[in-house]
UniProtKB/TrEMBL annotation:
CDD domains: UDG-F4_TTUDGA_SPO1dp_like. InterPro entries: UDG_Type-4/5, Ura-DNA_glyco_family4, Uracil-DNA_glycosylase-like, Uracil-DNA_glycosylase-like_sf. It comes from Rhodanobacter soli. Transmembrane segments: none annotated. This is Type-4 uracil-DNA glycosylase.
Amino acid sequence: MIALAKPVEHVPDGSLTALRRKAAECRACPLWRNATHTVFGKGPAHAAAMLIGEQPGAQEDLTGEPFIGPAGHLLDRAMAEAGLDRRTLYLTNTVKHFKYETRGKARLHKRANAAEQAACRQWLAAELLRVQPQLVVGLGAMAAQTLFGNTFRISEERGQWRDMGAQARGLATWHPSAVLRMREDRRHQAYVELVADLHEVAIALSTLSERRRVAL
């Protein structure tokens, strides 16, 4: 079992379908009150790799689907360049509801606080337990620190594999939304680094596939 660096008091049980239904009824923190949808993970039930983001954005909130807004489009482009097929991956977020503040008619992203993140970790822990990925990717600081602890720094430790149990490894890299927010002169380099880190995941997936083929 993949253990999160931050504690989880209770891990809900059931299939991914049942967990998605339970998460939609979660009232463990106040974020559900203003959310349109709970944005649960999506992908194959036994995907070899899981990509974990931070929290949904406005587009994800309206549809209930992860990574479909501007950051999702950038991630799709980076994955394609890295040789990853989104259809083979399980994509989810650390927090399952969109937190925002309103300015006029706009809904502006607001970071979930520590208590909200803690309340939501049960669902991420349950997803990891059900999917049992062999490769885990934390996108952004929130996901990285949930996986590897509060001292983890993306700018210093991104792209480095870490053991996450007997049969799993993980790494962290830039969140595509962070890349989009960067100054133009830094944005290109961060995108190149994101693609390079995702390419390492593609290589690792290829190695796992070859090992399974040889074992057969």
